[in-house]
Amino acid sequence: MGAVVMSLCVELVLVAPYARRAADQLSHAQPAWFLLAVAAEMVSMAAFARLQRLALSTGGLRVRLSAVVSAVFAGSALSATLPGGSLVSITYRTRRMRTWGASMPLIGFTHAVTGLPGAAALVMLAGIGRTLAGDSAQLVGAALEVSAACAVTVAALALVQRTSVLRRPVSALLRVWRRLRRGKGGQTSADGLLGELAAMRPPAHFWALGFGAALINWVGDLVCVLAVCHAVGSAPASDKVLFAYVAAMTAVSALPLLPAGLGPLDAALVLTLHHGGMPMSAATAADLLYRTLNPGLIGVAGWSVLLVQRRSRSGRGRIRPQSPYRVADPIHERGVEHGHLEDVAG
Question: How far apart (Å, rounded) are the C-alpha atoms in residues 241 and 244?
Answer without folding.
Answer: 5
